[in-house]
Fold:
Amino acid sequence: MSEVQGGIANLKPLAQAREQKAWYWYDWANSAFATTVAGVLFGPYLIAIAEEAAVDDRVSVLGLSLAPGALPAYVVTFSTILSALILPLLGAVADRTARKKDLLAGFAWAGAFFAALLFFLTGDNWQFGALMFIAANLCFGASAVVNDSILPLISTEADRDRVSSRGWAYGYAGGGLLLAVNFVLVSFHDSFGMSQGMAVRISLLSAALWWAAFAFIPWRGLTNHPPADVEHVEGGVLQRSFGQLWITLKEMRQYPVTLTFLLAYLFFNDGIQTVISQASVYGVEELGFEQGTMLGVYLLVQFVAVGGALLFGRIAAARGAKRTILGGLVIWMLIVTAGLFIPEKSLVPLLLLGASIGLVLGGTQALARSYYSLLIPRGKEAEYFSFYHSMERGTSWFGTLVFGVVYQMTDSYRPAIFALIVFFILGGLLLMRVDTARGIRDAGNATPRVI
Structure:
């Protein structure tokens, strides 16, 4: 029920609740791309296409000779480097406009368009698939910057962990639902009278259509909020955005706690994202499972992650987000260690590993987003989230680079997976140094009861 102040009803909580319900649906929408495309199908399918074009088990990329098996990791690495250069400028643009929901929808629909073109990835033209994925992934990151920058506008500091966790839960539920349909299609493609390749291509197309269709809900349900505390910079929109970005970069040293968290996030999130993006390749190429089996494991991860996100949100309400994230990182260390020893074609250990990933995946990501939002000064949400997303989900660069190099050196995905433990250790050690109370005060935000 809304509060009454001076005899006048305060309708802000009701308006925020309505916007939150609409906002949840964008996680539902874009998770189709994150799971069906980036998480499961694109990597192995790109490898199969590249193997058709390979000469002596190598393909040429800008004069470099690469193993087809390492190609998805390098494609994600390049996409992330490109994001790191472009997303901060897009964040500055978003902070200077009141039309955040329109930017969100525009990037979503552009990304869905490029993802839909993956349907035409056939023969040996792996370069076409790589370019379309890079473009779609860049739009995915840009839309995520805008989406996350809306979180502080529609929730209070005390409510942010709950809202962020519920958004992630929607995301895993939506992504898992579509993945269930694609699991049936790919696993039983013969029953539908189509080849496995056609089933994969239809699944890729379905993710694009899902992303585009459900993006209409937040576009219609969110409200455009006017920008706050934007510096006056002369020139046109692009020139003003560059100017504000430069001012923000200079001012960031005034927020050392925020910078420390970003550095911690760089490491532990790169580890998380690399596990997500390369797990399907690991299961198919190293453990010898069929693509349909890995789709089933990802389906398990998705639905366990719904409960994991909500559970971690409840734990954070009692113990604080930082402590809860640290606990999650310990579980991630155990997961990548188990990946080193899991037997080939052993289904039960694989399912246990998938359930463990699902339990911790949604929680760590949801709480990292809400925790970081407390450390951001008002009016700079999109810019700061652009730096955050330069290292965010599906766009790791250190992690995928290390994974690809270790595989190239050892010709095995086992040491490549285990090498990621370094990212969780370094990320956890840096996170332990983050002074939450000081960071919230420096950013000028209200301090929640439990931090």
Notes: The CA atoms of residues 99 and 224 lie 5 Å apart. The longest strand covers residues 3-5.
